[in-house]
């Protein structure tokens, strides 16, 4: 199974050993506030002088700061501790989903600085949608970033799957977009490096780097909405599969004589455990012949159903049955995978009735993992998760370019401006 590293620092051929060590130090400072150089050297497997040299470079870039002193174990001078400077840089997250298209600006700690929903004039048209997203991004940078040289990169979470290069959008059944180089299209519009992923993968990467499962090495995520999707991280690596479509839990077989799924197969788990399944059991399922328009109508219907779940016994039981089906049929792959944590998210997954029934069924099936989600856990929303993807791919990365950041620290010149022009698809 192909896998992509999400937590440990792995270099590409052009990346230096110094870049690898620098990325390791940034991640240690992020995960261990006020860490001293001696402990950092021990955890990184480096010498203390090496830590000092690299940390001084990061301090010059305003990415680290010395946060006071800690008492030395010997008679020497007190040791200075290091802390990530959250305002030393910024990343942007973009979500492109049928019901959730927006832009989020975050600092280096993953804290939200600004968020704006993008109301696309025609979400089925990739050219106009990307133009509208670019306009929102550029305005957000103008409004909130004093020096655009502090912008480190962009992450994008999309309802679709890309090729193994992470550049070409191969399929997006909900959006109905054609095959094209979406990474290049965004980078041309934004003049910033862009990392793009399927929305479920973006969420799991964000959660294991800066979220509720930070530090976990083996995690399964299931996102329950109108459909079902998933993602897996094994030993800190994102599992992508042979064709880069791993995680499509909604299309595992669940019933031999079941209903026909939108994919054309019979008895997929989506027909038993998704938002579509809930609506169908309640007699609220409509035609999907009109593509995105009908999809959005179903989304509105599901939101209405979820609001009534607490007071309507029929709705509550229907939601519980769907969640039990998800727990039962996902238990086998989860048990085979043996993760530390299972995350359930999505508009349906966050519903407390659905989450509780899913959790109870998994536990009854012998799953010992920590099951997260529901209302008690703040799982990152898609554009915020995309910002977490940007941190993982652009900031905690051996390829991070310090030169513009150091220049921004030392320069007294007028901040640069960003060209708001866009390039057509």
- Total strand segments: 17
The residue-averaged pLDDT reads: 89
% residues in beta strands: 15-25%
Roughly how many Å apart are the termini? 33 Å
What would you report as the Rg, rounded to the nearest angstrom? 23 Å
Low-pLDDT windows of residues: 10-14, 412-425
List the quaternary state of the chains.
Answer: single chain
What is the tally of helical segments? 13
Spatial order of strands in the largest sheet: 1-15-14-13-16-17
Question: Helices and strands: which structural class?
Answer: alpha+beta
Reading the helices and strands in chain order gives EHEHHEEEEEHEEEEHEHEEEHHHHEHEHH
The main sheet comes to: 6 strands, mixed
3D architecture notes:
This protein has 425 residues and is α+β, with helices and mostly antiparallel strands. It has 13 helices and 17 strands. The chain has helices at residues 17-31, 37-44, 48-60, 126-144, 182-190, 199-210, 270-273, 275-281, 292-308, 313-337, 352-364, 382-395, 403-410; strands spanning 3-5, 35-36, 64-70, 79-84, 90-96, 101-107, 112-117, 151-158, 161-162, 168-171, 180-181, 194-198, 219-224, 228-234, 237-239, 341-345, 370-373. Strand 3 and strand 4 (79-84) form a beta hairpin. Helix 4 (126-144) packs parallel to helix 5, helix 6 (199-210) crosses helix 12 (382-395) and helix 8 (275-281) runs antiparallel to helix 10 (313-337). The chain starts with a strand and ends in a 15-residue tail after the last helix.
């Amino acid at each position: 199974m192909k896998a992509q590293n999400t937590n440990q620092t792995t270099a590409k051929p052009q990346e230096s050993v110094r870049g690898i060590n620098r990325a390791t130090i940034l991640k240690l400072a992020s995960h261990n506030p006020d860490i001293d150089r001696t402990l950092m050297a021990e955890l990184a497997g480096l010498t203390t002088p090496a830590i000092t040299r690299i940390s001084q470079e990061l301090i010059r870039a305003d990415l680290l700061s010395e946060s006071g002193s800690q008492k030395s174990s010997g008679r020497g001078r007190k040791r200075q501790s290091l802390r990530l400077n959250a305002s030393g840089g910024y990343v942007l997250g973009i979500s492109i989903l049928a019901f959730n298209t927006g832009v989020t600006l975050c600092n280096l700690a993953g804290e939200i600085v600004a968020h704006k929903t993008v109301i696309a004039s025609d979400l089925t048209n990739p050219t106009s949608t990307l133009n509208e997203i670019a306009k929102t991004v550029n305005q957000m940078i103008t409004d909130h970033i004093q020096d655009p040289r502090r912008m480190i990169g962009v992450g994008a979470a999309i309802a679709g799957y890309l090729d193994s290069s992470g550049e070409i959008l191969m399929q997006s059944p909900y959006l109905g977009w054609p095959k094209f180089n979406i990474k290049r299209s965004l980078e041309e519009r934004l003049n910033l490096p862009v990392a793009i992923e399927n929305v479920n993968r973006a969420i799991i990467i964000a959660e294991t780097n800066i979220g509720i499962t930070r530090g976990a090495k083996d995690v399964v995520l299931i996102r329950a909405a109108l459909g079902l999707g998933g993602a897996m991280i094994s030993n800190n690596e994102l599992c992508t599969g042979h064709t880069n479509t791993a995680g499509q839990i909604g299309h595992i077989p669940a019933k031999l004589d079941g209903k026909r799924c939108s994919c054309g197969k019979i008895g997929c788990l989506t027909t038993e455990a998704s938002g579509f399944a809930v609506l169908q059991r309640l007699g609220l399922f409509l035609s999907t012949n009109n593509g995105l328009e009908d999809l959005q109508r179903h989304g509105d219907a599901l939101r209405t159903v979820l609001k009534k779940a607490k007071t309507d016994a029929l709705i509550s039981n229907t939601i519980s049955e769907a969640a039990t089906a998800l727990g039962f049929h996902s238990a086998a792959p989860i048990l085979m995978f043996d993760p530390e944590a299972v995350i359930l998210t999505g508009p349906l997954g966050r519903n407390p009735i659905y989450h509780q029934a899913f959790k109870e069924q998994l536990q009854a099936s012998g799953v010992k993992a920590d099951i997260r989600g529901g209302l008690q856990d703040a799982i990152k929303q898609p554009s915020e998760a995309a910002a977490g993807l940007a941190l993982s791919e652009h900031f905690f990365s051996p390829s991070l370019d310090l030169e513009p950041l150091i220049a921004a620290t030392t320069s007294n010149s007028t901040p640069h401006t960003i060209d708001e022009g866009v390039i057509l698809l």
